Amino acid sequence: MERTHISRIAGELNISNNQVTATVALLDDDATVPFIARYRKEATGSLDEVAITSIRDRIGQLRDLDKRRVAIFKSLEDRDLLTDELKARLEAAESMAELEDIYLPFRPKRRTRAAIARERGLEPLAQLLFVQDEIDLWAEAESFVDPEKDVPTADDALAGARDIIAEWINEDSDARARMRKFYANEGILRSIMISDKETAGAKFSDYFDWQELIATAPSHRVLAMRRGEAEGILSMHITPDEEKALAILDEIFVISDNPASQQVALAVRDSYKRLLSPAMETEIRSESRRRADEEAIRVFAENLRELLMAPSLGRKNVLALDPGFRTGCKLVCLDKQGGLQYNTTIQPHASDAERHNAASEVKALCQKYKINVIAIGNGTAGRETEAFVRELGLPEHVLIEMVNEAGASVYSASEVAREEFPKYDVTVRGAVSIGRRLMDPLAELVKIDPKSIGVGQYQHDVDQSALKQGLDDTVISCVNAVGVEVNTASKQLLTYVSGLGPTLAQNIVDFRAEHGPFKSRAVFKKVLRLGPKAFEQAAGFMRIAGAANPLDHSAVHPESYSVVKAMAGDNGCTVGQLMEDESVRGRISLKQYVTEKIGLPTLKDIMDELAKPGRDPRKEFEAFQFEETVKTIEDLKVGMTLPGIVTNVAAFGAFVDIGVHQDGLVHISELADRFVKDPSEVVKVRQKVRVTVLSVDMERNRISLSMRKKRPEQV
Length: 715
Known about the structure:
By secondary structure, this protein is α/β, with parallel strands linked by helices. Helix content is 48%, strand content 12%. The protein contains 29 helices and 15 strands. A five-stranded mixed β-sheet has the order 6-5-4-7-8, sandwiched between helices. Strands 11-12-13-15-14 form a five-stranded mixed β-barrel. The mean pLDDT is 93.
């Protein structure tokens, strides 16, 4: 079956069988997606992470299908039911639904109405009716009357026979396939409010009386209705037009026009209402949930990627403030490595005297710790604290930045934070997190469960296993794309490096603590349990600043060091000189260094890396400032144009922080002057935008925004 799967995946992804075969072999050998994409381009034909992940997931699905097929074979063999014809049909099944449809008539059953009818000896009558020849219906039915078998009348005999026919109809694979397609294309998703739930379910009011085609229902609406159903507010069903459904079944099973056919038609209606329709609704609900989950997870993962790959401030001395009114602002000073130097609490929003003291202290600390940037959390009192800091008259070189603090409180109370700062309380840890996520968003945010970062929707409603896989894939991709400075990286950051995981990450940290900073990549091999396979997978993504071998601070894999040395030797220079001198690199003909293991794709990557060793793929950091005169929702006026930062992208639009403690919504129809199908076509999380205020609903604390340059009335 594996060859068939390879061909099938190749066709689905429009790539060659060889590419799929090589990728599956690497995955089966425990190679990671980032490693394969970066360092095995010759084998895969330069497939990217998206294609490799698709192959990984699809081969997993098809292998699960094979496991189920084997289990069915065994069940049938054990009961002496597996014929050559049945085996061929099962082997040809291409989906789990098709496989289960074929197996359905042979599955061990509970005592159904059809089973009871068989016990009463009515199967011959059912077979007679199902053929639909001209017969004396009542005479035939009378011949099956037997009070001792609980068949007292001809009507009872016919009813039992119809029960058997209804089960045959329900178990017919062709009928199920056609009905499944009909439900998928023409099923209507309906939701209504459960009696007396109007007040309790006000947030679901849009769905109190709602219907639409399930085929086109967007993910966020399906998930919203499912949540309303789970909370006991909504009743939700997916059904197509019943007459059309019955017409499809009649076409298959009612093949004549006589008394026997009329009995079959009655059985069709019973089968549809009692058996087929509930089964198909269950399937289509499951499939619609899978699609909705898949889309929600995709959007969540894309948002998370943008957040993790946000520009890094880099190594700067940072003063971070976690704002507050009553309890004051927690202040910390961090060195260029993010180390905590000092912490205190200031009261800039209390009395004039305390405000004056706070101002003096901030200015003194900026001078003492040579502060380059002040990071201010965007929660309660954030804008007021920003205004206070901007009024201090600090030197122009001191940047002042608002930082999205979503998840900082989760981090501050976590075991990770307690390990890092065992002597400090949650307020200090939260302020440190705010400062560090400005310095390096990726390094800090990997310490927090992605679901706490605030860039997903209905994240607790979707399949949690699929969500974890999708988010883990995203974090792993981002961490390895950027690379990790192994001598300063936290255990949490190292955990996501290709080939490592929690145990090896901890072992690296322990080794570093005992022996000091790593001097070269070769030393990784001395780490407890970090064997050849883990070294192969991880080494290229771990960097050592200031290493004697400059390649140790690049993305060039140690397995390719020899070819770089050969290039340098052939040009009469050192590896360091080769990296520094563009003219020397320009003279190199890559074709002469092609071997069985290293081809042109890898050689081109090596040359790019030599030009910019350890390059950071993230964009340059740019300062941002909200509108100074707008600090609360009360300051907003319709028609205002304001700067903002996208905080979340959903299927129906984007949420934008405009500095008033409540994000505004740019509906998908307001994202651009053109038609937009997917909001991610236009905006990304952390993108800086300008928006116009369309409306402000003080009562519901809702802000409606637009990014359109022309209003409809102007077009």
